[in-house]
Specification:
By secondary structure, the protein is of the alpha/beta class. It has helices at about 5-15, 35-40, 50-55, 60-65, 70-80, 85-95, 110-120, 135-140, 165-175, 190-200, 210-225, 240-250, 300-310, 315-335, 350-365; strands at about 100-105, 125, 150-155, 180-185, 230-235, 260-265, 275-280, 340-345, 370-375. It has a five-stranded parallel sheet, with helices on both faces. α13 packs across α15.
Amino acid sequence: MTQHDARSGAARERAAAPGPADTATGPAGRDGRTPGAADGPAKPHPGAEADRAAPSHPTTAGEAAPHTDRPDENQNDGAEVSTGKETAGTANDAAIPELVIISGMSGAGRSTAAKCLEDLGWFVVDNLPPALIPTMVELGARSQGNVARIAVVVDVRGRRFFDNLRDSLADLDSRGVTRRIVFLESSDEALVRRFESVRRPHPLQGDGRIVDGIAAERELLRELRGDADLVIDTSSLNVHELRAKMDAQFAGDEEPELRATVMSFGFKYGLPVDADLVVDMRFLPNPHWVPELRPFTGLNDEVSGYVLSQPGAKEFLDRYTELLQLIAAGYRREGKRYVTVAVGCTGGKHRSVAMSEKLAARLAAEGVETVVVHRDMGRE
């Protein structure tokens, strides 16, 4: 047995012994071993791996092999301080989604606030038991960034589950989750008026009156209201004003996004039921009466060129685009996110299709996310 093998064997025996291994380091120098050889496995230092990787004298593969036969305690210590694990932990922390908890008085506008966040791109879960909030955050962290923002609506509808909210908040804090609590408040008079208008009982009134349920709910939510990061009093707010307040808090400097659907249709098949704006292209000559254009649709260049070359066509396109820009700005201010513009002609094949394509291109150029739908093309 070589001297190096003997040292490795002795080191393994010291690692296996529960107590004397700590006191065996001192005599190691007396039995002929160098102090560095004995101290290395017991007290690893940051440069140990680098020393072994770049020795000061040439070594052969046979000489380098025993270095991998270090005591197990040295390998475990190295794993515990591994930089790779620290990097993985940092990546997991960065993947933790942002969390907003929406709560407050019943009838104060929780659903409106939740829908506003949903329109802003948040993943919204309504009436989730508080005990499941940490689980929801964990699932979001596993989504590889696909679920970066989560909003959870928590209220007294959960009854017994609501008591777990305090423990869930403490759990989230221990994990370092960035969270905000939005509390919707309103006066008793406003809440009574809203419940009476929809003819629904308060969730906590039981056999009593609406005001009894409101009083019980205020008491249950008192502590949560004190912990809220944002309290919004909706007593005198309408739906649009509440949405504007939520946009101001969570949309940042970005203007609320507007999505438009431009739909061509034929009047003879009926008006689209979901149209917000309707425009009639029957003031233009019908390509149907041009034999060489009749078989084609407004998607064909010849048909499109024919429609736009008619008197008033380009003027209409320019001015109606300006009108849509004005309307879109107002929709954004009022918190409206979706608009459907219906463009009609007789059969929904030529004029409406060609003009819908041009309008959609103009809106897209103005930064409006636009989808084109040709409802009746091909029905003839």
